[in-house]
Amino acid sequence: MIGLSLVSAFGYTMRGALAFLLTGVAALQAAPVDYRWTIGFGQGTLEAIIRNEFGSSVNIYCPAGQIDTTPGMFVSVDKVRPRAGERIDVQFVVDNKNHAFYLEEIQFRASGRANLNSFHALVDALATSKARRFVVEFPKFRMSERFSLLNAREALGSGQEFLRGCE
Length: 167
What we know:
The chain is an alpha+beta fold. It has four helices and nine strands; from the N terminus they run αβββββββαββαα. It folds into two domains: 1-32; 38-162, no CATH class. It has a five-stranded antiparallel beta sheet with strand order 1-2-3-4-7. A four-stranded antiparallel beta sheet has the order 6-5-8-9, covered by helices on one side. Strand 8 (133-138) and strand 9 form a beta hairpin. The longest helix has 29 residues, at 2-30.
């Protein structure tokens, strides 16, 4: 009788534990993460940032409230680890159009008229795209990363709006 009680009690606790575990797993699956553009402002710099499921990120910034108002971006990808001072070619593909840049390690600074015009074109393309995603390609490393365009228009406005005050 005691053995039967222990088996019954053990059976109920195992079923309860299994139900609890399955409920927890279902809750995790029911809360998908959507990777969307966010915007922030701090210490005179406006930033629009997107991250993907692999932890990679693109950070577009405009330091309009700084002494040096040169806009730019940081592109951080775990699989691309540049050496100090290394120059890396990167290509953004938005709506099947390529926007080529070079990164000094992980940063691009839009200094000079040609770089600034190219940067404005990229920001405009990201903000006005009707696609769901864009791609960042690293030809030297033969790899690419995909990012969402969810909330890009809200975060970036347009190249003219977002980069106002940066030259």
